Amino acid sequence: MNRMIKDLLQGKKFVGSGLLKASIVFMIGFVLIVALGFTYLVRSLFSNYEGVRQTADLRTQLLRLENAMVDQETGQRGYLLTGRMEFLEPFDRGSLNYRSASDALLLEVREMKGRTELTKAVRQLTDTGLGWKKEFGDAQIRTVMAGESVSERELLAAKQKLDQFRTQQRSLLEQVELLRGERRTEMLNRLYLLFGAIALIFIVFQMLMLNYLQKGLMRITRPIMQLDRVVASYEDGNIRERLPDYVEDNEIGRLVRNFRRMHDEMEKEKQTLENTYRMINMLHQSRSPEEAYRSILKSLGSLIVCERMSVITQNADRSFSVKAVCAEGTVSLDERMLSGEEKDIQELLNGGFSMVHEDWSQYRAEGEITDGLYALGIRSSMHILLRKEARVIGVLNLMSARTGFFTLQKKERLEKLSPMIVTALENASETVRIKNMAMRDGLTELWNRRYFEQALDGIAAQRESGSASLPLSLILLDIDYFKTFNDTWGHPEGDLVLKHVGRLLMDEVRAGDIPVRFGGEEFAVLLPDTSPEAARAAAERFRVRLESESPSRKYRITASFGVASVEGRPDGAALIEAADRALYRAKEQGRNRVCVFAEERGTEKG
Prior knowledge:
alpha+beta
């Protein structure tokens, strides 16, 4: 395009030069029309919308004022009828909201210049509400607090005052709605007129431009119609069709030669595309990051044959590590931390561009890993940022024993694959995350019963050899009187207690222990390699902490604990039954205690 513009400025003639001139003129005119129309539209819209917004805000504040008044009256009436203090909470809240709404209402109406009658009506309305609170709301509440009763006459007077407020509020709301409708209609009429004018200008401009472009395109298309008939077969993907023998050195000749070069390139890329599709299919089937790393490196080996490939990502502590390495066709997933190479990796990420180091004898990253690779014969490398849009998750490294092996074409090809690689890695990580979510309790974020059973089976398989020196212990705990608690305080408060118990369990358990929400108000902790005495001590620590730490000052939470242990290969059902029997004994003995199942006697001891 720059060359065409340069030739155009120099007065040279070429196919489409007149059309290019017209396009530039039309483009400039179009931009000017859009800019002027948009500027005038925005200014007009903001100018007219301000009045509509003021009336909308005024209506909102009127409704807030009404809601605040309703809260006050509801709380006052409830307290007068029942004498219960909780009814004073909506009354006090309504009083605060009324004051806030009245201040905002007066501020809004003062900003509406030339509306003195509206301002007067708003002030009368707010004064009526304040008068009701002072004369009847507070006064009648103080009367009841003093142990006296409110007379029917006083109640009737309060109702009349409230009816007066509602009448004034409805009247004022009707005025505001009427004013809002007038302003909205005025704004829409202006917008319709403006849109109509702009649309008319656009239509005229487009008709002129399309008429000129149509004539210019006809002058260009006639000479290439013959070529179009020849290459029409390309629409069906038949790239073997013979191209015309056109040898003149002009635009059409260059087009024919470009088609011939494209044909040759398509043949060369055919195998590459097949390998790429195979790689994409393998990536989409990956179910874990490790499987994705393996698929990436294996597939890239068929696209670009080189001595070594690796994937580097940044860890949570901002350090870097090699996640996977492919050397001589073998993929290793042993993670290895970088040493001095971190500086170059960080500079690469900060720069935001993939890099090619053509000769390691001239430059390479400084570090133990690169020094070792150089000693093994690596002489050039290519480093592709694994990025999708603005998000970078790591670096793909390809290394060769040949100097200057990696070309710009190879770099661009892998850069195009980079978003798909990132998507595959993210999908694999998301698959793992979803699997973990399926094993978590949604309320407490502890492991659920399904995960508990799988973990118990896994531990049983590991201990099958009998090499474990310590027993496997299980703590079952049940929140005391939880059904009564829910009936008294409500299920939302019950959920708060369950979350609280879950947080305490996660705080108390050791690394390797498995805290579980067993079901309902019942929880469990699986403690590998833990003696009965240590399991009992852990249960007692948690019992004491649960008793002393409540999510609310309104109540205290306690729980009953059952502890059981087994040596050798555990029978999951028997272990659960033993812990459940110990838990039942703890409840029989008065709850809020720990009982341990004694396997040799089949009894429980506190």
